[in-house]
UniProtKB/TrEMBL annotation:
<keyword id="KW-1133">Transmembrane helix</keyword>
<protein>
    <submittedName>
        <fullName>GtrA family protein</fullName>
    </submittedName>
</protein>
<keyword id="KW-0812">Transmembrane</keyword>
<feature type="domain" description="GtrA/DPMS transmembrane">
    <location>
        <begin position="60"/>
        <end position="174"/>
    </location>
</feature>
<comment type="similarity">
    <text>Belongs to the GtrA family.</text>
</comment>
<dbReference type="Pfam" id="PF04138">
    <property type="entry name" value="GtrA_DPMS_TM"/>
</dbReference>
<feature type="transmembrane region" description="Helical">
    <location>
        <begin position="124"/>
        <end position="145"/>
    </location>
</feature>
<dbReference type="InterPro" id="IPR007267">
    <property type="entry name" value="GtrA_DPMS_TM"/>
</dbReference>
<feature type="transmembrane region" description="Helical">
    <location>
        <begin position="151"/>
        <end position="173"/>
    </location>
</feature>
<dbReference type="InterPro" id="IPR051401">
    <property type="entry name" value="GtrA_CellWall_Glycosyl"/>
</dbReference>
<feature type="transmembrane region" description="Helical">
    <location>
        <begin position="57"/>
        <end position="79"/>
    </location>
</feature>
<keyword id="KW-0472">Membrane</keyword>
Length: 180
């Protein structure tokens, strides 16, 4: 421990504080943070918010919000014509195609056509997981469930599916370390 760090700790234990300095009374020129502490802080920041996620997450949420509104409208209309499971699957496939294109362009900034087919195919595989989450949640509902309850169920299950989808899109489909 450096002498300045020891001096600050001694001041703190004695109950005294330097006369000037930022909030808390410590003179930041006297406080030293070890490189190990900086490394740990960087590791925590990286674990909680990996590089690029601070920019990607708002775009993903905006696209997801618009896609969810479109999905809910499609689901509500289609569920009047076909079963809720069929309406769910149809609405999810249609909105996934559009949201994949939007996420490819705006969230993950992939503007070239290279790899577009691969990302859409992989996104459809991710859709299968999301579809399983929402379908199971609908299947768990009693048969005489109101349309409002079905809608609330798909909203909640879509939220969970959206989190799973973002993780898979970021780590697998649009991972920049992958070869195209």
């Amino acid at each position: 421990m450096s002498t300045t760090t020891v001096a600050v700790l001694q001041d703190e234990m004695a109950g005294s504080q330097p006369a000037e300095g930022p909030v808390g009374g410590y003179d930041e020129r006297r406080v030293q943070v070890s490189p190990r502490a900086y490394s740990f802080a960087a590791w925590v920041r990286q674990a909680l918010m990996p590089a690029g996620m601070a920019r990607q997450l708002p775009a993903y949420i905006a696209i997801g919000f618009i896609s969810t509104i479109a999905y809910l409208l499609l689901f509500a209309i289609l569920s009047m014509i076909v079963s809720s499971v069929t309406a769910n699957a149809t609405a999810m496939v249609l909105t996934t195609i559009a949201s994949t294109a939007a996420n490819r362009r705006f969230t993950f900034e992939m503007t070239s056509r290279a790899g577009a087919v691969r990302t859409h195919v992989e996104s459809m595989l991710v859709l299968c997981i999301a579809l399983a989450i929402t379908t199971v949640s609908l299947d768990l509902l009693p048969s005489a469930t109101s349309p409002l309850t079905e809608l609330a169920t798909v909203i909640l299950s879509n939220g969970l599916a959206g989190i799973v989808r973002f993780v898979l899109l970021r780590t697998w489909v649009f991972n920049p370390r992958r070869a195209s």
